[in-house]
Specification:
single chain, alpha/beta, 6-stranded mixed β-sheet, 11 helices, 25% strand, globular
Length: 367
Amino acid sequence: MYLQRLRILNYKNIEEADLEFSPKINCFIGNNGEGKTNLLDAVYYLSFCKSHTNSIDSQNVMHERDFFMLDGSYLLNDVTTNIYCGIKKHQKKQFKRDKKEYEKLSEHIGLLPLVLVSPSDEELILGGSEERRKFIDGFIAQYDKQYLSHLLSYKSLLTQRNSMIRNEIHDDLLYETIEEQMAHYGTYIYEQRTQFIGDFMAHFQEFHQIVSMEKESVNLVYQSQMQENPSLLDLLKNNREKDFIVGYTTKGVHKDDLEMNMEGLPIRKIGSQGQCKTYLIALKLAQFDFLKRLKNVKPILLFDDIFDKLDALRVNQIVQLMKDNRFGQVFISDTNRDHLSSILKNMDCDYHLYSVENGKIDLKEKK
């Protein structure tokens, strides 16, 4: 699978673009704020029906414009597939596959698997547990439709239960009904997260060894209240009085976390900037490999300004990996053209190199 052509109108600072891509490596060079991230975000949007950097659709429309349009042609299972998205301010978003509009956007998720590596990923290490749950949930949702459905149902019930607690509603029968449903959905979520982390670990450690050149050992530890008490229904019921005191639901899979360790200690405490970035890149490369094996298709891989704080040897390790047949189409943005050009010219694979300035994207060289 790869993106053959992308047409853009009025997306963020990109007024108009019509681009044909290499099926292998596509590099976008420019200073910060010129539109590199916006271009990669447009590719992301067509996979996930939303922007990675701004979830409010109307704010992604170019200033003083009334709409934006994204139109991508993909080669999918040897057949060209068209994905269209149109947004007009104050109107419903249109999302179409081969001119047929989706009834639900969730029907599209997983069709075009994609993995993004960006500077904001540092929140996976430095941020709260919600960021790490989003990583796990977003990953599993790309290959398990039932997981996404159960996750949305669980969150809806959680919101309802929290609202009842805040409003001091004491109706045991109603709580029991809600908690039984939460337990049903939450148990499935817990089981799938547990299985995912167990299967994912080997992929992650393999890529970290390659990128770090075997300099550090790493692991991931899934933490859940259900590991101590596998009955989510009991957890919710037994903590109901405590929840009334604190004003929210204290137990459940919405409190799960993922501990990220290096040399047996939390990397957020001991890792340098370069080590943290290496950790995150290995995490995302493992995500790519895991999805590829599950879906039997190579996801699109986006690297957005991630080479800062990495030494030249680790950058070279990453780019050299990209020419390997295990990877498919790659998009890379960077501010340093000379550095990236020298690496690309020594690689025996197809690539396109673009310059990005003030929202305008021009092809400069190709191989």
